[in-house]
Automatic annotation (TrEMBL):
Family per record: Belongs to the UPF0718 family.
Disordered, as annotated region: 1-26
Record keywords, A-Z: Cell membrane, Membrane, Transmembrane, Transmembrane helix
Residues in coiled coil: none
Protein name as catalogued: Permease
Localization per Swiss-Prot or TrEMBL: Cell membrane
Entry membrane topology: Multi-pass membrane protein
Organism field: Streptomyces olindensis
Ranges of Basic and acidic residues composition bias in the record: 7-26
Upper classification of the organism: Bacteria, Bacillati, Actinomycetota, Actinomycetes, Kitasatosporales
Main location: membrane
Pfam families found in the cross-reference section: ArsP_1
Length: 341
């Protein structure tokens, strides 16, 4: 009797665990299977693919794409390594001790600190969250959040390399980005409300060893930033090779339209700040002022940053902070470009 009662249970357990195991194995093998199918498809249709790639428009596309990737990758990797080291090995309490007690003074100090602390925007959001969690005034933490990805040494060096004939672009990017970061910090200190800002939760690296946390951060940032770089390089190559020159000239010839077009493009592309200068440099149809706007807006507000800010500080914060940052970045970069470029 015991056997007849237990046998259906065992059979039922096998019936329940079997499909679960199949689904779990399916999840594990989906990605390799997809890659294998793509490779087989490429081999089967290599003739047509080779013919398409040999077309003049594709040759131009590949030239721009490869040029942007080759120039940007070293800066991307270096920036990810340095930002991971700072996020993992430099305790957040260090920043709290280094900043002045008065928020009005802490904002420009925190903004200027971005000039000596390399890090991409993917790293600046969790670092800013850690600062708020350790008691740093939110206005100063937000100024650091905006300035660090835009004016750190890696980004400014990459900008100088991307614009060898226009060294003033480095100064213009530094000035405009720092002004926006400080202005947003002061604006939040003046008008921000406590209930708009959710206290960030602990970082995902807590409880891990330093080495494991460092390499987890590197793998995460390389994967995400590298993917956005590829998308940005593809978009830049497409603009150069596919979009009719008349369309680009129509937008580029209008001073206001060109600035707004590249500002929106920066938000949509969501590039890593270590690589965006090379994409901007390839948009030669547009003025230096419009490309400066692209470089100022991108590291401060784009699609991935909005999602990260909402996840870290809350949706009420992101819905107010992001549009204000975008508008101020466009205005300040346009004015800075008019004066310095």
């Amino acid at each position: 009797m015991a056997i007849t009662k237990t046998a259906p249970r065992e059979s039922g357990e096998r019936a329940e665990t079997g499909p679960d195991r199949d689904r779990e194995e399916g999840r594990h093998f989906n990605s390799p299977l997809l890659l294998t199918l793509l490779l087989l498809t490429a081999v089967m249709f290599q003739g047509p693919i080779r013919g398409a790639l040999s077309a003049p428009v594709m040759q131009s596309w590949m030239t721009v794409f490869v040029a942007v990737m080759v120039q940007a990758l070293p800066f991307l990797v270096l920036g990810v390594l340095l930002s991971a080291a700072i996020a993992v090995f430099v305790p957040p309490s260090f920043f709290a001790r280094a900043l002045p007690g008065r928020p009005a003074l802490a904002v420009p100090v925190a903004g200027a600190a971005g000039a000596v602390l390399p890090g991409c925007e993917c790293a600046s959001v969790p670092v800013a969250g850690a600062l708020v969690r350790r008691g740093v005034t939110p206005a100063a933490a937000l100024a650091f959040l905006l300035s660090a990805p835009a004016i750190n040494p890696i980004v400014l060096t990459a900008t100088a390399v991307a614009f060898p004939g226009d060294p003033e672009m480095v100064l213009a990017r530094f000035v405009a980005s720092l002004l926006v970061a400080c202005a947003m910090g002061w604006l939040w200190h003046r008008l921000g409300r406590t209930d708009w800002l959710r206290l960030p939760a602990g970082t995902s690296h807590e409880g891990q060893g330093k080495g494991a946390a460092f390499w987890d951060s590197v793998r995460h940032d390389v994967t995400h930033a590298g993917g956005f770089l590829v998308v940005g390089a593809m978009a830049a190559a497409t603009l150069k090779a596919v979009v009719p020159a008349e369309w680009l000239r129509l937008a580029a010839d209008h001073p206001v339209l060109s600035v707004l077009a590249l500002a929106v493009l920066a938000v949509l592309l969501s590039l890593c700040s270590e690589a965006d200068a090379f994409v901007a440099a390839s948009l030669t149809q547009f003025s230096l002022t419009a490309r400066l706007t692209f470089l100022v807006v991108g590291p401060m507000i784009d699609l991935k940053l909005f999602a990260m800010q909402a996840g870290t500080f809350g949706r009420a914060f992101a819905l107010r902070f992001a549009p204000a940052t975008f508008a101020l970045a466009v205005v300040v970069s346009a004015l800075t470009g008019t004066v310095l470029l």
